[in-house]
TrEMBL record:
<keyword id="KW-0694">RNA-binding</keyword>
<protein>
    <recommendedName>
        <fullName>RRM domain-containing protein</fullName>
    </recommendedName>
</protein>
<dbReference type="InterPro" id="IPR012677">
    <property type="entry name" value="Nucleotide-bd_a/b_plait_sf"/>
</dbReference>
<dbReference type="InterPro" id="IPR035979">
    <property type="entry name" value="RBD_domain_sf"/>
</dbReference>
<dbReference type="GO" id="GO:0003723">
    <property type="term" value="F:RNA binding"/>
</dbReference>
<dbReference type="InterPro" id="IPR000504">
    <property type="entry name" value="RRM_dom"/>
</dbReference>
<dbReference type="InterPro" id="IPR050886">
    <property type="entry name" value="RNA-binding_reg"/>
</dbReference>
<dbReference type="Pfam" id="PF00076">
    <property type="entry name" value="RRM_1"/>
</dbReference>
<feature type="domain" description="RRM">
    <location>
        <begin position="9"/>
        <end position="68"/>
    </location>
</feature>
Length: 70
């Protein structure tokens, strides 16, 4: 029997730039209950987050433009 604190997470790579949390949940919920789905970056400090937002906001990497919002 599985413990109640066990989480069954999977990393999905190769997402298109149009993929969002809602589309992930919709696609995978056909296989069972999806507890959470998100595309997010979590930083270790407020300053790291602010630095990334300042540099990455509007950054173009040949495939997409990053718009970093706090």
């Amino acid at each position: 029997m599985a413990a109640t604190n066990v989480e069954f997470r999977c990393f999905i790579r190769g997402l298109t730039w149009a993929t969002d949390s809602h589309s992930l949940e919709k696609a995978f919920s056909t296989y069972g209950e999806v507890i959470d789905s998100k595309i997010i970056v979590t930083f270790g400090s407020d300053q790291a987050m602010k630095d990334a937002i300042e540099v990455m906001n509007g950054y173009f990497d040949e495939e997409a433009v990053f718009y970093a919002l706090s």
